Amino acid sequence: xxxxxxxxxxxxxxxxxxxxxxxxxxxxxxxxxxxxxxxxxxxxxxxxxxxxxxxxxxxxxxxxxxxxxxxxxxxxxxxxxxxxxxxxxxxxxxxxxxxxxxxxxxxxxxxxxxxxxxxxxxxxxxxxxxxxxxxxxxxxxxxxxxxxxxxxxxxxxxxxxxxxxxxxxxxxxxxxxxxxxxxxxxxxxxx
Length: 191
Description:
It is a single chain. The chain is α+β, with helices and mostly antiparallel strands and 191 residues long. The protein has 2 domains: 2-35 and 127-190, no CATH class; 40-113, Double Stranded RNA Binding Domain (2-Layer Sandwich). It is built from 5 helices and 5 strands; from the N terminus they run αβαββββααα. The protein has helices at 2-31, 57-68, 115-124, 133-162, 167-190, and strands at 40-48, 73-79, 83-90, 93-100, 105-113. A 5-stranded antiparallel sheet has the order 1-5-4-3-2. Helix 1 (2-31) packs across helix 3 (115-124) and helix 1 packs across helix 4 (133-162).
């Protein structure tokens, strides 16, 4: 049993350590964001669309996605008699669209973030209902990584427990880590 657990522990560590490092880096970016000089590339363009393409906000979004090569998830839809506003978003890029029915023109404001901010957006990304397959794949890999890291911890505790001479120091480190983690969790919820 010890040999099997050691091999599982090693394989899990090799596979999921990279993902843990990506989440650690994005966590540091979240914490130290004010100190980082991150650039945002912004642009704006106007395109003309036929009125039948703007029958509904979703139809308008699909027409723009096809004609202007916009990819992402449709969010924040606002419809008024004279205008339609919405956002097409994917980690690293955001398109804010405002369509004026009177002129049949859509103004597309594009924001593109750098690598570090994109990592943060991937870090806080959640769910499996996105329209992009790549974002859903990232979500699935994040879930698998979380499960893998929990199994890595469980196999590590088993391997530590089997070594009788290291139980005292290992138990002390485990208790300190658990107390630190729970305290941090409680303090972040209170703040």
